[in-house]
Amino acid sequence: MGFTENDLTDQSGKTFLITGANTGLGYETARALALKGGQVWLACRSEQKAQAAMDRIKTLAPNAQLGFVALDLGDLEQVAQAAEHIKSLGKLDVLINNAGLMTPPLGHTAQGFESQMGVNHLGHFALVGRLADKLLADDTRIVVLSSLAHTGGVIDWDDLHANRRYSAMKRYQASKLANMMFGLELERRLRKQHTQAKCVICHPGIAATELMRHMPLPIEKLATPALKLLFNSSAAGAWPTLLAATEDIEGGSYWGPTGIRETRGKAGPARIARRALKEDQAKRLWDLSVELTGVNPGL
């Protein structure tokens, strides 16, 4: 058992918005949903790159329903503008928070946040927060992408923006823990509302995507036969996202690859690290995110 793209059902009549959909997991998710008849909005920084991705998809499905939304998760003013655009698009069935940075050199967002926490978590928090009324009204499913790395994550509450010290991998792990905690806390808060909206979390395993461009070794040097056994392709890495976005599953559930310690293979239930289940810490993160972004979802 397990879910692959072959199990994806017809998505005609449904509208999806995917952040970071021009490359990697986001592109593969957009491609698969479009090929099954879904209307897909690609929310990306670069219109040129988004258009190139849409052109690629249309070579496979000339009648694919695709569109572009300008979104830079590293600038909260631009997030606010994107949210207003999204509100004008009509009903939104599924919002997929896919975009992210992985282990870049130290950098900061427009508002001064450490780039990985700023883009991976705070940018998405602000987007969801500004869309909260629409998501509740549309009964939208929110999909949050976390990572296997969340299991080693520790949030440095005293140095959230890496002003004193910076380890790219530790900051990535922390941002992915934040994604997990946010997804679970969002689901808890949604359950208190009169809505069918829900939040589902997933992870891609170890997928060879553009996210890994900042890793010490180029992916092509890692692509030995032995390491290929550990790496999902981008297409296979998108299977948990497709499951989370389309299947009849419970809010708050977590999905990922089911083979070799959740690194690859068909999609199915995944394990949540104990530290991500601490509700007091999730509430602390939520309140801090409201303070830092200036966006209160009102949930």
UniProtKB/TrEMBL annotation:
GO molecular-function annotation terms? oxidoreductase activity
User: Which InterPro entries does the UniProt entry name for this protein?
Assistant: NAD(P)-bd_dom_sf (IPR036291), SDR_fam (IPR002347)
The record's annotation in PANTHER family points to: PHOSPHATIDYLINOSITOL-GLYCAN BIOSYNTHESIS CLASS F PROTEIN (PTHR43157:SF31), PHOSPHATIDYLINOSITOL-GLYCAN BIOSYNTHESIS CLASS F PROTEIN-RELATED (PTHR43157)
Q: What is this protein called?
A: SDR family NAD(P)-dependent oxidoreductase
The UniProt entry, under Pfam families, shows: adh_short (PF00106)
The source's domain of life comes to Bacteria
Q: Which UniProt keywords apply?
A: Oxidoreductase
Q: Which NCBIfam families match?
A: PRK06197.1
* Entries under CDD domains matching the protein: retinol-DH_like_SDR_c_like
Please tell me whether the keyword Oxidoreductase is annotated for this protein: yes
